[in-house]
Amino acid sequence: MSYNVKGEQRNTGRTHFKKGFTPWNKNKKGVYSEEYRRKISDGGKGRTSPMKGVKHSDETKQKIKKARKAQINVSGPKGKPWSAARKNAQIARNGKPYIIRHKRKSVLKNLKPLIKNGKEYHPLWHEIRKLIYKRDNWNCQECGVKCHNNIRINCHHIDYDVTNNDFNNLITLCASCHAKTNFKRIDWTLYFKAIQNNKEAEIIKISV
Predict the structure, then answer these.
(1) Residue of 156, 102, 148 lying closest to 128 (CA atoms)
(2) What value does the mean pLDDT take over residues 153-170?
């Protein structure tokens, strides 16, 4: 859509060209000589920012400061109210410690709890799941794929109770298989329990 008044300009992306107009240099190469292109390039060099050296008044500074304070980080949780599940988990925590992972050390500190989807995990959950990964040789126990940087590894609670961290209740899954366990939970629970029971039976045979 073109402007109605010649010379009128707005920041809308519209131009004075009528619909269907084709610019003379469309899809044409080599229109400008190397010398002319060099002049255009050199002409843009050394230009300074139009705001360089401009000083804001105290009133403008206060307006900018006030506007920035009112901004909310829409891409993250900052500035957003807690959900009811998050509030209940925080109350239930009641000052329990959680684990901070720093390089190769794991330290318990009384700061934020480890909460996912409103459920509070064991403070040593990061260390527990590593033991499960090592036990299962970093392989998904459903599809058998070897988990690495491109295939995300997950530790699944067979009975879906994040407080039950018994090793027989934990199993290694890739992210794809883990996502499938959100449906038909009873069937998956029985299925993975049977897998764990078979593993125990094999271990008993080997030991005997």
Answers:
(1) 156
(2) 89
Put simply, whether the predicted model's pTM sits higher than 0.85 gets the answer no
What values do phi and psi take at 7, rounded to 5?
90, -10
Q: Could you give the CA distance from residue 120 to residue 179 in angstroms, rounded to a whole number?
A: 20
Structure tokens, 185: 């939970």
Q: What is the residue whose two structure tokens read 């038909």?
A: 184
Judged by DSSP in three states, 172 sits in: strand
Is residue 153 within 8 Å of residue 138, measured between CB atoms?
yes
Question: How does DSSP assign 104-146, residue by residue?
Answer: TEEEEESS---EETTEEPPTTHHHHHHHHHHHTTTB-TTT-PB
pLDDT digits (tens, 9 = 90+) for 43-89: 777 777 777 778 889 999 999 888 887 776 555 555 567 778 777 77
Q: pLDDT tens, 88-100?
A: 777 776 666 555 5
> What span, in angstroms and rounded, lies between the C-alpha atoms of 205 and 142?
23
17: its two tokens: 């060209």
